[in-house]
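Dear support,

We are seeing what looks like truncated structure output for some complexes. This example has four components. We would appreciate it if you could run it in full and send us the complete token output so we can diff it against ours.
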Amino acid sequence: MSETKTHKKRDIFVEGPIDPAFIAESIAKHSTKHDIGAHEIFLGQVRADELKSPQGMATRGPATGNQQPTTVQAIEYTAYRDMANEQMAAIREEAFARWPITCLHVHHSQGIIKAGELCFFVFASSAHRQMAREAVAYVTDEVKKRLPIFGKEIFQGGGHQWKHNT
Amino acid sequence: MSETKTHKKRDIFVEGPIDPAFIAESIAKHSTKHDIGAHEIFLGQVRADELKSPQGMATRGPATGNQQPTTVQAIEYTAYRDMANEQMAAIREEAFARWPITCLHVHHSQGIIKAGELCFFVFASSAHRQMAREAVAYVTDEVKKRLPIFGKEIFQGGGHQWKHNT
Amino acid sequence: MDVKLFGLIAEKAGTERMQLSAPDTDALLRALEQHIPGLSSLSYALAVDRKIVRDNVKLGGGEEIALLPPFAGG
Amino acid sequence: MDVKLFGLIAEKAGTERMQLSAPDTDALLRALEQHIPGLSSLSYALAVDRKIVRDNVKLGGGEEIALLPPFAGG
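Here is the complete output from our reference environment:
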């Protein structure tokens, strides 16, 4: 990837869930790059987590309707978009400096993403598998740590709590 | 995944390249599994490698037409299919024994796969990212080491040599 | 200056934006804790011009300020 | 017994199948090296009933035998 492309202003956010057809298109675009031998992809999917303890409810808002929320029905993602994109640009440069990868694509959802839907897509390609593998692991972990993205877990039957990465 | 499913006879081989649309379908099928939070995917793509040294030609057959083959145009994959599927079943059991993954899918091409086309697809899903990531790395490496799959690199302008994993 | 609020903090404050003036980030945080109920008991970070700031820094008034609750991307 | 040949070895032998009889794998390999030009200088593994065998094992005649050049999957 050229310096120009690396520094290009990119917006990783997409409205709503990530469509598997979009992932297929993204993969297919690489068929013209004949120096690529390996693609590594990470996808985040919204889990229908069960609420385990009442402490978990400490931060939820006033329950509406059913007073016993149980499982996560959806996550509503919001982001400090400008800062998130700047952080992502920094992570991207770190990844290109560290591994000889051919390309790197990252997308994250905004808005309401239901359980079973995809909210996060990290995709790296390289000549050999080790580089793409390590780059995807690094980028996935750093995005979770460094990007100001907020997730409101919405419970079945009403109520919510704020997710936080550990 | 249930014991029965783990031991089901599976055939990993597909004729020709792996279609990105097939990958999309495979991803989409997991939207009903609400305990999945992470998918990790590895894809192998045929590289148009350049022939670097005359030693590389030691095993190629009689050149036809052009006597100076340069880059790999395609790989023709053949396999000892029964043994490969048995080895894959063993690797699958090792992966399920070692990581709490929800599912694991592996597909490999047979026949002629052109540069830029996909020949190998490894896909694991789990609640959290670390397990799927490690399982895909393990399965990818073990498949390359243990499955009797053979690759004839066909050069542009004629001639070929036999690929071998290092 | 304009302070952006996100997630749980925006929820507690009942708004995504607040207008305050302060000479430095320590003073700004004291003002924010007065305006947002329970802020002092929450875990958050302060960003000045889209960078997280941990020590006290002077503010000119033109900075982009944001209060960030724990991250949850991915 | 029926011996399956693959990849480079099938190419050298000019066939994907060979009929030979031998009491054990060592004797079988000697017979194969006589029939396939240059086999002794190649890197290969022998599989008996779809498992790679490194030591000499007795053969009853009903086994599935295969000669495997280096693997190239993935």
